[in-house]
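Example for tutorial group B:
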């Protein structure tokens, strides 16, 4: 990936390897949280480089209703989100905007 986030036009603060290690740790932490939502939200606040996540408070990491297929996150993200059941957490998902974990809440 580029060192500049082409969506937000900002310098990326960590390498892909660092991001993957951080997100793998989040997956492990969420696995021990029966509801996942508390751990997921807290970790989004702590490690996300996305400004909406940093300012969203208790909704950190919440993307709202996704309009799948509209190109915002890309086909890999859309496919991963659609494949999840409510309450299920994805593995790492790669997009043009970076690496993600998706928690389906509705």
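The residue assignment follows.
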């Amino acid at each position: 990936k580029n060192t500049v986030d082409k969506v937000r036009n900002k310098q990326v603060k960590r390498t892909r390897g660092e991001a993957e290690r951080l997100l793998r740790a989040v997956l492990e932490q969420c696995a021990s949280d029966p509801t996942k939502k508390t751990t997921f939200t807290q970790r989004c606040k702590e490690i996300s480089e996305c400004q909406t996540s940093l300012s969203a408070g208790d909704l950190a990491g919440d993307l709202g209703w996704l309009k799948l297929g509209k190109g915002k996150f890309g086909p890999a993200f859309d496919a991963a989100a659609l494949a999840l059941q409510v309450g299920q957490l994805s593995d790492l998902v790669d997009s043009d905007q970076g690496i993600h974990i998706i928690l389906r809440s509705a």
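The chain has a mean pLDDT of 75. Compare this with the pattern of hydrophobic and polar residues in the output above.
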